[in-house]
Write a structure and sequence with these properties.
Length: 217
């Protein structure tokens, strides 16, 4: 596919005009659904805007790759991996970045940003790229900090990447992405998704895991 990206900088946030960013866009666009593609792009824009609000200096290219790859692991090729989808997504981003000879510290930042994007309360205290992938996800999916971004900026982003029926559609994508490996939802937010949408799902119980361990005391 030939990438014909929109570089008009919605809300004053340009997409990095680099070979790495263009190839990330092409790979993700060819791999995921339109739903996930639009969501991932919004995560970049909203994460960037929250970075501006928080006066954080960040590498736009690394933030872009983290945002674009963060949900890749929900796809069918990873349904039997036995690992959390966040790790599958992070590993794909790491392979992509290493293939482009990106420095290892930058690779680590992107991997961590993706792996922790569903772990609230931790990323905000880490490197800006890690914090802002999570901030973008939290904004687009959960509405956290909704009023931190002005109406005009929010409208500009959504005009470029619309979100029709997004709440139900993204919950469906989460369900389809993890229902084949329910054990990976133990102790994380995706257990709530399966509890709502997969009949017969039984979430892991941390207390029972401790009490039923082989330790006598």
């Amino acid at each position: 596919m030939t990438v014909t990206d929109d570089l008009s900088a919605p809300a004053g946030v340009p997409v990095p005009d680099t070979k790495l960013a263009r190839e990330a866009t092409e790979l993700v666009r060819d791999t995921v659904s339109e739903l996930i593609y639009d969501h991932s792009r919004r995560v970049y824009f909203f994460g960037s805007l929250q970075g501006r609000n928080r006066d954080l200096g960040f590498d736009p290219e690394l933030l872009y790759v983290g945002a674009m790859f963060h949900d890749l692991g929900l796809g069918e090729p990873f349904h039997g991996s036995g690992r959390r989808f966040e790790v599958d997504s992070a590993d794909e981003a790491r392979r992509f970045l290493r293939a482009h000879n990106v420095p290892e510290d930058s690779v680590r930042r992107v991997w961590t940003a993706i792996a922790l994007h569903t772990t609230p309360g931790v990323p905000e205290f880490m490197e800006p790229e890690v914090a802002l992938v999570s901030a973008g996800v939290e904004y687009d999916v959960l509405g956290i900090g909704y009023h931190d971004i002005g109406d005009d900026d929010r409208t500009a982003v959504v005009a470029l990447h619309p979100r029709p029926g997004f709440k139900q559609r993204i919950l469906g994508a989460f369900t389809d992405g993890v229902r084949h490996k329910p054990e990976t939802t133990f102790g994380n937010v995706k257990a709530d998704v399966l509890a709502h949408y997969v009949p017969g799902f039984e979430r892991g119980d941390f207390v029972r895991t401790i009490l039923d361990s082989p330790w006598p005391e």
